[in-house]
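Lest this sound abstract, we think one record worth quoting, the chain in one-letter code, the fold tokenised, each line plainly labelled:

>
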Amino acid sequence: MKKICIWVGLVLLLLVLGSCGAASQPDFTAVPELGQQVDLVAGLSEEERDAAIRNYFNSDRSAYQELRIIAANCQMNIPEEYFGGCYFQDVMTDPKLYVLLTDLSAAPVIENDRVIFHEVKYTEAELKKYQDVVWEYYLDKGIREAGADIKKNKVEFGFKEGTDLSALYQLVPEDAVEYYFLGEGDGFELLVETAEIEQ
């Protein structure tokens, strides 16, 4: 009897240890928690929301929907110091998800041949920081629009024609930026002019 208890105890211990090892990496194909499904339930009544959630969890998902779930999990679970963002390609014909990392050794194991990891220089957080720095510096000097181009791993800026950009590469690395000039009436010029009038 004592030997049986010892064997049962060892088997239980092995099961617990095995399940701990399996839980070391998140399941990147799992549907995100309800709180992250904002676009699914926004603006619905409680009954409509519950029905939409039931349908979402019970429905067969397309390849693109599966990739959206994986992208959301990558955003939440890949450490910020490696994550360069995600983008989709060929959504209608042959969907693919590109996950950008500053170090490919940080890539999680995802068993889906539509997920492609690509190494880039800058993280998504770095691009956001560069965008903020340039926006703040040029806010009253001619900047009209800004946004990250995840696919290019760069931040793009639109400046008013004739803006002095001599300080741009002192603020951010040259290979992290693309810029263009906008004529009168292009971009967010009206918003900037409105802010200037209120001052």
Observations:
- DSSP finds seven helices and six strands in the chain.
- The longest strand covers residues 83-89.
